[in-house]
Design goal:
Length: 732
């Protein structure tokens, strides 16, 4: 077995399966980092992608097993912001990869910012992707790290980048297509997180490495909206005026929302770090941030303006790496420095603050977090991300003295700390190996243990606690966002997998309660259960209240009219039977998975206003545009289609959707919701108008739907799939 390896800019070859390696081979260009790719079809063909001084310095090929190396051609990215001589855009130290077709020694793929293919051994190149889909190229996320062919296959190849994994199943053709394979593949590297102050809400912000700042609004912390792009740095939600929210990009480039996260405006300043640490004063409405050597920066009017001020503090002796606005003393901010020192700065909102060094006894290192007990500025924690030193320290006297509470912790970086809001002798920390906790901060005798159930041994960068319900969120650097009720009081909460359905269809209820140990359910139809996650079947149409009581009465939640069981109806079914949305008003119901629900009424919004019959229509959002990522269904009664014959379905609608992406379609079920089928999959007269061949629209590729704009109510009809020879009842 022949093995090639690189070491400090040199290439070495082993002909005995790695037992020994030969001397460094002679290269015609300088190299620091080298990425190698061997042709599986010809052991003599080897390619080397060379980095030197952060740029791509060349592509080399050997056709004689490394005896000699010859320079080949580098690809030239179509993006004018990427130099023709460096397709990594000075990031060759970071994003650089090369692979060879296992069946073709001249088939080469490389990645820097974007992806390229050569069919002549790196002589000429074809660009395959662009990081935002520009210049006529298909989209693949920026910053390529690895290219992997399925063993023995020339057609199936995987591309690993900052956005996850992309796949091609036709890599052997001239212009391979790429598909994002990131669904349910959660590897987001969050730097930061922020939590909405309203109890029991699932609204969070989180800043992600090279994947923007994300807004969480659903109970499932896997579903997000990217509200601002680039690298997502620190983020904040004003805790007493939560309509004001902030995200940031690199080097103190901020975005503000004044409408609760609906719209965002950019406010850029200077200085700072690539990921600048910041903290927000919720009471006095000021933002504090890292700036440059011996300075910090302050945003004086973040809610309304763009006034920034740089404050000089020569005694810092370094760069700010951690900030904490005191929750107890107005205009007091604690600063951690990259030399290990911690400072208390009073009157931090002025040009001449009072600065006190409170670092006695602390180590030289990189301060990552300063935690202050609510109600007591004398009780502090300071954490460090260095190996080889005690990484967490406690002060009980405002920083006059410090005691290591490292205890039995492994030697690992610590990036954040929280006091238990119910007991400030207990702590929770974010580490290189997940979240750890202690029940007693007790100097060198502090006993820490991993609190990673449901999490993982993954780097965690930040923790935030919501004071109203004591929920804690954790921003992991590689596994997304997690939350825990570890500090929360027992609170009854629940969900159901179906809110609108048909009689005889089981509904699965799930307790999402905080710290529940027993459960008592009442389903509103005399049905009960003591299971944590029961299933219940309703037999009579109507709307039902559902009640959950936990821990023998410690907490009770009632959701009124929570479940809607739709009726059976005969055919024909006309306006006077309920199709006008006036007669039998419970005949129709909604099931909203995400975003804006269907609502019944007469909207005043242009384009949504008006009705066809009666005084109501069903509208996605009566008072405004539907939200991004909306997934909502309007459901009909269970119709009787048992008679042999053709059935005509007609309805009136108008719409204004983002063409090519958003839209709606009609689906039906013949087995009471177990399986839903599209009513038609192709475009047709008086029916679907969009063929959907692009693959990234709301519905599956090659399945048509209603798309674009129809300004006035128009009748649509379809008989194609409702011609039954003998079928059971049908729901639409």
């Amino acid at each position: 077995m022949v093995i090639y390896s690189t070491l400090a800019g040199s290439i070495h070859k082993s002909t005995n399966a790695g037992v020994t390696f030969g001397a460094a081979q002679t290269l015609p260009i300088s190299a620091t980092r080298i990425e190698l790719a061997c042709a599986m079809s010809d052991v003599n063909y080897v390619y080397a992608l060379i980095e030197n001084g952060d740029v791509v310095n060349g592509i080399l090929r050997s056709i004689n097993g490394g005896t000699t190396w010859v320079a080949r051609t580098e690809p030239d990215d179509a993006d004018p912001g990427i130099p023709a001589s460096d397709f990594s855009r000075t990031q060759a130290w970071y994003d650089l990869t090369i692979a060879v077709d296992p069946n073709d020694r001249n088939g080469v793929f490389v990645g820097g910012v974007d992806l390229f293919k050569s069919t002549d051994g790196a002589g000429t190149w074809t660009q395959l992707s662009h990081w935002y889909g520009g210049f006529g190229f298909q989209y693949a996320h920026a910053d390529q790290h690895y290219i992997f062919f399925k063993p023995g296959s020339s057609s199936i190849v995987y591309f690993v980048n900052d956005g996850g994994i992309f796949q091609s199943t036709n890599a052997n053709v001239a212009a391979p297509t790429l598909t994002d394979k990131g669904t349910n593949y959660i590897t987001t590297q969050f730097y930061s997180c922020a939590i909405h102050p309203t109890a029991l809400t699932n609204y969070f912000l989180a800043g992600a490495q090279d994947n923007g700042s994300h807004q969480f609004t659903q109970g499932n912390v896997q579903n997000t909206t990217e509200v601002t792009g680039g690298d997502g740095a620190f983020c904040h939600i004003d805790q007493d005026e939560p309509q004001y929210q902030f995200t940031s990009y690199v080097y103190n480039d901020f975005y503000r929302s004044a409408d609760g996260g609906g719209t965002w405006t950019e406010f850029a300043t200077t200085g700072g770090d690539f990921i600048s640490p910041t903290d927000y004063d919720n009471v006095n409405d000021k933002m504090y941030m890292c700036d440059n050597l011996n300075t910090y920066q302050r945003w004086d009017n973040p809610q309304t303006g763009s006034t920034f001020a740089v404050v000089s503090v020569p005694s810092f002796g370094g760069f700010v790496t951690a900030l904490k606005v005191s929750p107890n003393t107005a205009n007091r901010v604690f600063f951690g420095i990259d030399n290990g020192d911690v400072f208390r700065v009073d009157n931090a909102h002025t040009a001449t603050p009072t600065v006190t060094n409170i670092s006695t006894g602390l180590p030289a290192g990189f301060v990552t977090c300063i935690e202050v007990q609510t109600g007591n500025d004398n009780h502090l924690l300071a954490t460090y991300s260095n190996y080889g030193l005690n990484s967490i320290w406690e002060s009980l006297d405002g920083g006059v003295s410090w005691t290591s509470v490292e205890g039995n912790l492994p030697d690992m970086p610590i990036r954040w700390a929280l006091f238990n809001p119910n007991n400030n002798d207990q702590g929770l920390i974010a580490t290189e190996l997940g979240v750890w906790s202690t029940d007693n901060l007790n100097g060198s005798s502090t006993n820490w243990g991993a609190s990673n159930s449901g999490l993982a041994n993954v780097r965690v960068d930040m923790l935030q606690v919501r004071q109203s319900d004591k929920i804690v969120i954790a921003a992991t650097h590689g596994r997304g966002l997690f939350l825990t009720d570890i500090f929360a009081p027992p609170t009854a909460l629940f969900t159901a997998d179906k809110l609108t359905t048909y009689k005889g269809v089981p509904i699965n209820f799930t307790s999402t309660s905080f710290n529940a140990t027993s459960w008592s359910w009442n389903f509103g139809d005399a049905g009960t259960s003591t299971a944590a996650n029961p299933s219940h079947t309703y037999t009579v149409p109507g709307k039902y209240n559902v009640t959950l009581t936990i821990n023998s009465g410690a907490s009770t939640l009632v959701k009124n009219l929570y479940i809607h069981i739709l009726p059976n109806r005969g055919t024909p079914y006309a306006l006077t039977d309920g199709g006008n949305f006036e007669v039998n008003p419970l005949d129709f119901g909604v099931d909203n998975l995400a975003g804006t629900p269907w609502e019944k009424g007469n909207s005043a919004v242009a384009g949504k206003n008006g009705v066809v019959s009666g005084s109501n229509a069903w509208v996605t959002g009566l008072t405004g545009n539907y939200a991004d990522n909306t997934d909502a269904s309007l459901m009909t009664p269970n119709y009787n289609f048992t008679a042999i014959g053709a059935y005509l379905m007609r309805f009136q609608s108008k719409r204004n959707t983002e063409s090519g992406y958003d839209g709606f379609r009609v689906e039906y079920t013949l087995d009471s919701c177990r399986n839903w089928l599209p009513l038609g999959t192709i475009t047709a007269a008086n029916w679907y108008n969009f063929a959907n061949t692009i693959g990234d629209a709301s519905f599956p590729v090659n399945e048509a739907f209603f798309d674009g704009s129809v300004a006035t109510y128009t009748q649509f009809s379809n008989t194609t799939e409702l011609t039954f020879t003998r079928k059971p009842k049908c729901c639409i």
